[in-house]
Design brief:
alpha+beta; single chain; Alpha-Beta Plaits; 3 helices; 37% helix
Length: 115
């Protein structure tokens, strides 16, 4: 299984919703115009817009690494607007992707058939 899926849950900091929305719009434009292997990049907000969930799918590990590189400064700014609640990667990440995720609060789940 080469495809990589990601699920991230986050809490938006008080008073940062409008900045978060602006930065997400920038990120979405970058995904559309620069990412070559992003298959899905959807964001969902709770009814009160205080928490969210991101559902992402990538062709493979290298597409996710490309995504990280393309978002660069926008992602750094976004990280100032929310706190991570949890993150999961589903699939079989490459050695390079595992290295890029070191130190991040992300759990990796490999396909059952790969075990």
């Amino acid at each position: 299984m080469e495809e990589i899926q990601g699920i991230a849950r986050f809490k938006i900091h008080d008073g940062k919703l409008e900045e978060w929305k602006r930065l997400v719009a920038e990120a979405m434009e970058t995904v559309r115009s620069k990412d070559s292997g992003t298959l899905q990049y959807d964001l969902f907000l709770s009814d009160d817009s205080s928490e969210g969930v991101a559902i992402e799918r990538y062709r493979d590990s290298y597409a996710l690494l490309e995504h990280f590189a393309n978002l660069g400064d926008t992602m750094n700014a976004l990280l100032q607007t929310y706190s991570s609640i949890s993150g999961e990667i589903l699939g079989t990440p490459s050695v390079a992707l595992r290295k890029a995720l070191e130190g991040a609060d992300v759990r990796i789940y490999v396909p059952y058939q790969s075990m």
